[in-house]
Amino acid sequence: MKALREGGATVLGTPAELAAQTEVVLTALPTEDIVKQIYDDMGAVASKGQLYADHSTVSPGSTGAARKSLRSNARASSMRRSLAVRPAPRPER
Question: Is the pLDDT of residue 26 over 70?
Fold first, then answer.
């Protein structure tokens, strides 16, 4: 983290701190448990107009859980109606 900070990056303490300060959140996380943990944290500060894109290689159920966290924890009740989270299309075999 020190090298990133010295290179000019802003280093924040939690996913929620990041989500509260940006319009677009891109994630690529290693496990379903971490996806759930991160999206639960960010959901507490999610607001209308933000875009969340998860690129993790996890089950579609994990994407659904992330969507549920964002919707249920959203600060603005109007966001619950406007939030759209869709899994990426799966390649045909």
Answer: yes
Measured between alpha carbons, how far apart are the two ends of the chain, in Å? 41
Q: How far is CA 75 from CA 37, 42, 59, 90, in A?
A: 18, 11, 27, 32
Give the separation between CA 25 and CA 8, rounded to whole angstroms. 19
| Nearest-angstrom CA–CA distance, 42 and 70 | 7
Does 69 fall in a domain? yes
Is 62 within the bounds of a domain? yes
CA–CA dist 1, 39 (Å, integer): 22
Looking at the 3D structure of the chain, how many domains does it have?
1
Fill in the amino acid letter for 15.
P
Q: What is the pTM of this model?
A: 0.72
